[in-house]
Amino acid sequence: MTDVAREVGVTAKTVSRVLNDDGPVAVETRERVMEAVRKLGYQPNLMARNMRVGARDAAIGLVIPEMGNPFFGMVAGGVESVVRARGLTLIVGSSSESADLEQSLIATFLARRVSALMVVPSATSDHRHLRTERVAGLPIVFLDRPAVGLTADCVVSANREGARAGVAHLIAHGHRRIGFIGDLPATLYTRRERFQGYRDALDDAGVPFDRSLVETGHDQEAAQAAAVRLLALPVPPTALFAANNLASMGAVLALSRAGRRDVALVGFDDLPLAECLDPPLTVVAQDPEGMGVAAAELVLARLDGDKSKAQRALVSTRLLIRGSGEVPASR
Amino acid sequence: MTDVAREVGVTAKTVSRVLNDDGPVAVETRERVMEAVRKLGYQPNLMARNMRVGARDAAIGLVIPEMGNPFFGMVAGGVESVVRARGLTLIVGSSSESADLEQSLIATFLARRVSALMVVPSATSDHRHLRTERVAGLPIVFLDRPAVGLTADCVVSANREGARAGVAHLIAHGHRRIGFIGDLPATLYTRRERFQGYRDALDDAGVPFDRSLVETGHDQEAAQAAAVRLLALPVPPTALFAANNLASMGAVLALSRAGRRDVALVGFDDLPLAECLDPPLTVVAQDPEGMGVAAAELVLARLDGDKSKAQRALVSTRLLIRGSGEVPASR
DNA sequence: TTGACATATGTCATCGTTGACATTGAATCC
DNA sequence: GGATTCAATGTCAACGATGACATATGTCAA
To answer: Which nucleotides of C are covered by protein (CB under 7 A)?
Structure first.
């Protein structure tokens, strides 16, 4: 900025005034400044500016576990649309489901003085360390999974209810042996909730719970292997409930490769082209974009000074009946 | 930091020394400082630090057109793995395919003093304005699509070659009327290249080009409609070539809903569960993660001082034969 | 005992920017 | 014509951190 000022023959302050439309500036001076700015390719230093002004900057930080997982991609998309509409910038980083990386990402964001934080917590993280910031008035909203050790806003899917509905749907089609393919680790919030929904549905129908029908696989390949193991049981399940998108993909793959069109399948979370699969995939659809939007709106409300107590928003799910969930029980 | 210093009864400088492992500090002082840091929940102000040190910070900015599109998600994932391994932080923002938003995102990143820029340009953008930065030594790498009006590093798929191979595959199965479903706008780099590949394959085989077989749809729904239009032509195509993932999804949906298993289809870019579709989808697979990795490595090399001239890296594609592309020509 | 040296800490200036306040000159008013 | 006002610009300090250099204390060899 000093360079620009020297070029024009004024003080840095005057340049600052031009750039911020601050005090009065002579038309001619303004033009000469603008020209010098162009000529020198001057970029105002946001860091210095924010430091001086003391204001947290116009960026909001979002931490997600995986860039590659389309579910989080859609969540981020939802957040972004809202944040952008407010003229703020969204900064996204991924934690790879590691509590350490999550914490270091959060530290990076804080050090960069973001004006709010949105976090999809990784499986093993603890958020006690964020108490100070929360008390200091930094809006923090958790997405998809609630915070651990910290009371804070949070937007989650109706996991338990959705899973219950999905499994009840299978039971309604005559199934009593229903395999469950869930996330790793088993302590993960969404996994626990969906598992509870699975138990609920069984209990509601008086179907006994069989631990051997519960399998785990945290990526598509592992889920596929899990499905294969389930189908190889002495008394195999006649239906599968896949508790997340990757598990669904694994299950679809396993059934497809094994040519097992007699096994029913309901997935949690919708997949692209689910209706074109063979058979078309019945799912308990989440609304990832809606979650992002809801969370972002919550953050903006907090930024606007909403001081009401921390709330947990439930985003409902919808059972989309397409075929795979309506395969009747074979035995 | 001053607060911490006061708490301990030393100068800010001493606190700084402790935190940066700088000069010598008495063990006892160090401990007392650390304790005060914890107690007060002190967060060093990265902005102030970077300002003082003058260094660009340890963040790399990545601009992608869409958060929701899994293709870019995977690209970002690839970039991130490499960047993270170097201890740097990746900051991602989305431009919604708008040149204006892209430019403002870039400005935001520059103002934040990222140490390098990676950009998937939006369809209509121009990058002349980045000349100054490039000359000033800021590494800038373009991904998926090359820069416009600027010579810079760039990593792209072998679009033309891949499309040519995909269309040639259809021709080899007897098709001569092959519909093309491409991106919007038609001026988009990837669309142009893939279209050229389509033309190449037709020319190679001496198949006349028919303009009425070229349709456009920039999202899944539009692509589906485009496929429907193609199939309703007086002399309809016996095969379709979908030039990107959304187009493929639209085409699959259209064929599936119309029950047209007699129409062959090859998609550009792989889809999850493509092998479970009915028929399984033959694609020209890109390597989005590989593109991200390659681009990130290029950026790191530049950061390490590689001054060689701007290069364009081609990431090759693979034809994955699964069924939909081998449907024989019906007429 | 003294000076050379290392250790632990402090002082001051500075990074790029802007808030608070001062200065200058010209126009306006009574 | 002197007071008042306003426009245009300047001066200085400060944001939070650190680099360069200074100071104070202790240790040890000559």
So the answer is: 7-12, 14-21
B87: left (phi over 0), alpha (psi -120 to 50) or beta: left
- Residue B277, chain A, CB below 8 Å: the answer is yes
- pLDDT tens digits for range B112-139: 888 999 999 998 999 998 888 887 888 9
- Structural domain boundaries enclosing B250: 159-287+319-326
Task: Give the closest of B41, B91, B110 to A93, CB-based.
Answer: B91
What are the tens digits of pLDDT across the range A20-46? 998 899 999 999 999 999 999 888 888
Query: Residues of B with CB below 8 A from A59's CB?
Result: 108, 112
Tell me the percentage of chain B whose pLDDT exceeds 90. 77
Chain A residues touching B289 at Cβ < 8 A: 68
Dihedral sign computed on CA atoms, order B146, B152, B157, B160:
positive
Contact A67 B47 (CB under 8 A): no
Same domain, B69 and B138: yes
Residues with CB under 7 A from strand D: A 9-11, 13-14, 17, 23-29, 48, 51-52, 54; B 1-2, 12-13, 16, 19-20, 22-23, 44-45, 48-49, 51-53
Same domain? For B192 and B220 the reply is yes
Q: Which of residues 312-331 of B touch A (CB under 8 A)?
A: none
Cis geometry, peptide bond prior to residue A146 (ω within 30 degrees of 0): no
Domain assignment present for B52: no
User: Mean pLDDT over residues A237-256, rounded?
Assistant: 96
Contact B146, B189 (CB under 8 A): yes
In B65-182, at which residue ranges do the beta strands (DSSP E only) sit?
Answer: 89-94, 116-119, 140-143, 153-157, 178-182
Of all residues in chain B, the one with the smallest CA distance to A43 is: B111
pLDDT tier for residue A257 given thresholds of 50, 70 and 90: very high
CA angle A47/A50/A56 to nearest 5° reads 115
Choose among A67, A113, A278: nearest Cβ to B80. A67
Q: Which of A273, A277, A283, A293 to mutate to test the interface with B (most CBs of B within 10 A)?
A: A273
State whether A205 and A218 are in the same domain: yes
Q: Are residues B27 and B104 in the same domain?
A: no
Q: How many domains is chain B built from?
A: 3
Q: Which of B82, B221, B72 is CA-nearest to residue B145? A: B72
Q: Are residues A125 and A270 in the same domain?
A: no
> Can you give the pLDDT at residue B331?
55
Chain B residues within 8 A of A68 when measuring between CB atoms: 70, 73-74, 76-77, 289
What are the CA-CA distances from residue A74 to residues A10, A272, A310, B52 (Å)? 49, 12, 25, 38
- B214 Cβ contact list (under 8 Å, min separation 6): B179, B180, B182, B195
Q: Are residues B141 and B39 in the same domain?
A: no
Do A76 and A119 reside in the same domain of the chain? yes
Is A270's pLDDT higher than 80?
yes
